[in-house]
Amino acid sequence: MEVIHYNYKKRETYEVHIEHSILFECALGIAAFTNQSLINTLERKDWNLSRFSESLHHELEYVTMHNTWKALLQILHHDAFSSLHSFTEFLTHAESEKLKHLCLPYAGEALEQLRIEASRGRLDAVQSFAEEVNDHPFFPAYVTFISEIDTEKLKQHLIRVMELWFEAVVQPEEEKLRELLRYDHEAKEKMKQKLEPEAFVEWATGGLTYRPEPSVYQVLLIPHYTYRPWNVEADLKGTKVFYYPVSNDSLYKEDPYIPGQMLVQQYKALGDEVRLKLVKYLYERERSLQELTNILQMRKSTLHHHLKMLKAARMVESNHSTYRLNRHKLEAMPINLEQFLDKKDEQ
């Protein structure tokens, strides 16, 4: 039976908030350095290992073994800590159950009671919670570790690794890092006024598409330098978190005449008659490779080349059978150009 719909409900989306903190940069630096599978892909290669004390190496090995960088980030979301001292003071005086609850990952409202019981040390709850998150690469072992470790030992480790990393890595360039994070935050706030939430998240993260999902009411964006070029994703109650890499515009703000690499790539991608035709055909609707080949009357290898350029500029997306236009990227292009043209010499 057919249904006639007279009701109207606008598709819901999320609100976007942006925060920055030198403490998040500190914790993400620890996370990046101890991620053995990704460390060689990081843009940052200038780790001054001579500043790393034996104690710091020991704490970093512990982080690598137990993924305690996750605990640092979870705790940092508990409050807007104004300094490393306020963070360590909180840790020093935190009650065991509260601290462990903060450290354990949020895995959805349906599992929140299990999370609470696991933070109280109930063995059956710990086991059940670990089983519920067994599709995650490290959560099961992490849940067991956090639930069973002596609280004072956990506190000492978290305080030591933050203090030692801050002293060795953050402090020597603290002023530069603070200014970089502040500048990127302000640039994102300006762009946030010009784009819809989903388009803005995609723009800020360099192409990450995040659609609204149940029980997520806001997206929290936190800029970082050390983990470039990666976005790091996390979940809090009602919130999706993306720790995103600061933009090239923020890194090279001293020269307002250097355009962002993606801006150049996008306009290059459109600087061709065939690719402009492709954009128009895909603007109309999704199309298969065979359909595009028939329309344009060209070899698939040639068409692949043009589509590859559009995909590299993140203007076109594909699944196994069809290509579609990334309208968010197309709509953001004139705004990105305007932002570049308005960029002022900071010197």
Q: What can you see in these coordinates?
A:
The protein has helices at residues 22-33, 54-66, 69-76, 84-93, 96-103, 112-119, 123-132, 139-148, 151-170, 174-192, 197-204, 248-251, 261-270, 273-284, 289-296, 300-312, 327-342; strands at residues 15-18, 218-224, 232-236, 239-245, 287-288, 316-318, 322-325. It is α/β, with parallel strands linked by helices and 347 residues long. It has a four-stranded mixed β-sheet with strand order 1-2-4-3, with helices on both faces. α1 (22-33) runs antiparallel to α3 (69-76) and α5 (96-103) crosses α6. The longest helix has 20 residues, at 151-170. It is globular. The protein starts with 14 loop residues before the first strand and ends in a 5-residue tail after the last helix.
Low-pLDDT segments? 1-10
Name the structural class: alpha/beta
User: What general outline do the C-alpha atoms trace?
Assistant: globular
* Helix coverage percent: 40-55%
Please count the helical segments: 17
Give the SSE order as H and E letters. EHHHHHHHHHHHEEEHHHEHHEEH
Tally of strands:
7
Q: Radius of gyration in whole Å, from Cα?
A: 23 Å
Task: Note the topology.
Layout: E1 15-18, H1 22-33, H2 54-66, H3 69-76, H4 84-93, H5 96-103, H6 112-119, H7 123-132, H8 139-148, H9 151-170, H10 174-192, H11 197-204, E2 218-224, E3 232-236, E4 239-245, H12 248-251, H13 261-270, H14 273-284, E5 287-288, H15 289-296, H16 300-312, E6 316-318, E7 322-325, H17 327-342
Parallel strand pairs: 1-2, 2-4
Antiparallel strand pairs: 3-4, 5-7, 6-7
Helix pairs in contact: 1-3, 1-9, 2-9, 4-9, 5-6, 6-7, 7-8, 13-16
